[in-house]
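Here is a typical sample entry:
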Amino acid sequence: MTARGYYDGDSSEVPLYNVENWLYEDFEPGQKVRSIRRTISEGECMLFNSLVMDNHPYVADELFAREEGLFGRRLVAGAMVFSYGLGLMANNNVNAFSYGYDKLRFIRPVFIGDTIYTVRTNLEKRPKYKEMGLVRVSYEVFRNEGELALYAEHLQTVKYRDPSAHTPET
């Protein structure tokens, strides 16, 4: 460190904060982990709706939602539930890359003021490319006291520890 508090050396030796570095071989099908909980506020809902231009009356119009809507109150946008639910489980794995999502389902509505948490289950893995395999995980986003609100499966390519030990798809 310099006198002004700056690092003056090679930062490649300094451990990265909030980063995981597991590889394909470390992925264990059947393993489950749960996130912390997160309460969703009205302010962040309106900000999210503004950012993504979601002006649907169920998420943006209090009078409509209360007087004419099916649920009697405003919903949290499905895209926000998806983003927050997966964000609660996001890890900054420098060896994994998003490949896509399957089976996205909005099972129950989430309302402003609800608290959500996510359970990730490792489902399967298989070789895919010369340097990376494909893993599939499920995300179950629950609201409040354990009511399933969203389900999705995430596919990720993950680097091999030893590429020579895997045969890529042809």
In short: The chain is about 20% helix and 35% strand.
